[in-house]
Design brief:
There is one protein chain. It contains eleven helices and no strands. The chain is mainly alpha-helical. The chain has one domain. The radius of gyration is 27 Å and the shape is elongated. The protein starts with a helix and ends with a helix.
Length: 286
Amino acid sequence: MLVLIGWAVVLGAVFGGFALEGGELGALMQPIELLMIGGAALGSFFVGNSPKAIKAVLKTLPSVFKGSGYTKALYMDLLALLYEILAKVRKEGLMAIERDIDNVEESPIFSKYPSILKHHHAVEFMADYLRLMVGGNLNAFELENLMDSEIETHHKEGEVPVHVLAKLGDAMPAFGIVAAVMGVVHTMASADQPPAVLGNLIAKALVGTFLGILLSYGIVGPLSTAVEHRLHESSKVFECIKVTLLASLNGYAPQVAIEFGRKVLYSTERPTFSELEEEIKSRKSK
């Protein structure tokens, strides 16, 4: 939603300011220039990227227009889920959660947290490392290295759409210049026309440069930044799971282990110690 609001502000400020100066908005409406810039950008997008990268961009873009799902409520559910799992492990042993992690959809514990089950990658990440803990063949140091490698891989995959959109945004001014040059060529070929006609042709050519710069710095560039922010938010879920499980593996009680996880969250979504404690107590009483 913020993306659409931001775009509206950008376009409103630019076109509104032009109109307030007495400019004729109709002079900026040049669909042919937009066709050349947009077509060149689309073509370069397909030429410069693999099918995997294209699919990643198309998959990521819709999520940017939705509100962030990484809220305090989500992390409260995540920490409560981790607490419940670790409490069961402490009380009944690691083997007691084997059925829960083998089929999380039917697990009595996981099914209490539908908001977490929607994040399939995070649930898979959690279940995989709980399974390794049940196996008992890895120590905390080895498990941490493996977690770091997987989080890094996740981050690199998530950076693909960021880089693709950033490069596309960087290319927009150049495509605008191409469109402008085409307009200048057309103007030079019409040198026998009256000055009024030539002035109109030059104005159309300059619109190409304007559109290229506007699309780069006002539309596509900020979009790549928004995708990058969303990537950082998604990575924080994995970090929270990681430090909580490692704390448990190092012998800390469930209440202390989830405190490790709470500490790595961003301050804007991090519940306070008291809030988390009250949430755990309220869930116990249900």
